[in-house]
Amino acid sequence: MPELPEVEIARRQLESWLSGRRIVSARAPKTRVLRSQRPQRFAELKGRRLQEIERVGKWMLLKFDGGEGLISHLGMTGKWVRRGRDEPATAYLRGTLELSDGHAVDYRDPRLFGLLLRGKIEQLRQLPSFRALGPDPLPGIDADRLHAVLKTTRRSLKEALMDQRVLAGLGNIYVSEALHRAELNPQRRGTSLKRAETDRLVEAIGDSLRNALSEEESDEPITYVEEGGENFFLVYDRAEKPCKTCRTPIKRIVQGGRSTYFCPRCQPRRR
DNA sequence: ACCGCTGTTCTCCG
DNA sequence: TCGGAGAACAGCGG
Description:
Blueprint: H1 4-18, E1 23-27, H2 39-43, E2 50-56, E3 59-64, E4 68-73, E5 79-83, E6 93-99, E7 104-108, E8 115-120, H3 121-124, H4 128-131, H5 143-151, H6 157-162, H7 172-181, H8 195-218, E9 251-255, E10 258-262
Antiparallel strand pairs: 1-6, 2-3, 3-4, 4-8, 5-7, 6-7, 9-10
The structure holds a DNA duplex.
């Protein structure tokens, strides 16, 4: 489910569930989620207490006492859920932490695209894909750096912003949303960006993420389809529906094998 | 039955 | 060396 806002909500939940409790037992079946690690490695979390959870983009680093850590990436379908004592575990369980307060905290992941990696905190930080992450866009983006990075790539803005080394945490949804708010065409090349456009983009990314985050904080998680057949987003998954700003039908194109949504009038190719 | 999908990583090709 | 396409992973829903 997750791009940055969903992962941030997961981080806060997980922190509230784990803090102040001791892990009484940890178990994980052998799955892709553990990559090459043995289930025993995960089980070593027994006896640990969480100190805090660091988030960079869509990646979480759970830090336990004794310098022990756990990397959690939710992939497409990963989710942490809490369960009371004696409540049955749900399907697709890929890891369980039993806590001293009687709850169990489960990692569920039907499609196994997620990741649970155990190790010393400092060793986990060396993981290549973790190390390569660009800066997290929250609380704020360094506009000078973003402009410099985008100016040197001939890729489209859509593809560049999907690259976790450029900024960590944007995915297919929020790239479309942010480009719409910034009134930038997703097919524009990075090299074509004017500084004022980067500044708009910086604002737009922040607004998109904060807007999603506040929605998730208030109601239930974001509903992809709401009562009126509408969804929460300005453009994402709204092909052929009227732009919420100008009523022009939203277009869907494919970039890097993924759908991009944009308003051809608000986001013209050149302006 | 077929297609698409909120992510990441790899290969192939120009 | 870079960028783009496509595939793989695996399950669900339309």
